[in-house]
Amino acid sequence: MHETCANCTLEFIPQPGYYVGAMYVSYLLFSALILPIAFLGVFYFKWSMAATMFLTILLCALTYIKFIRLARSLWIHMDVRYKAEE
Predict the structure, then answer these.
(1) In angstroms, rounded to a whole number, what is the distance separating the alpha carbons of residues 19 and 52?
(2) Which residue has better confidence, 86 or 10?
(3) For residues 33 and 44, what is the distance between their CA atoms, to the nearest angstrom?
(4) At 56, is the secondary structure helix, strand, or coil?
């Protein structure tokens, strides 16, 4: 992740521990993706628990970096209010 914005010079890492809350956002995003897939796999497609766990772990491994960036972006957007130039 870049340290500052190229357009407005906003610091993306303002203080140590700033993105701890982004972990909660990331957890919610992962849960929203993984839980429906796991429930469909077990209850609708009748997959074994091992196959469902393998699929969910594989999806988490493949999407981890994207979700972390998305969670950090959402976290900073909740904290910083942007105003359009008039």
Answers:
(1) 31
(2) 10
(3) 17
(4) helix
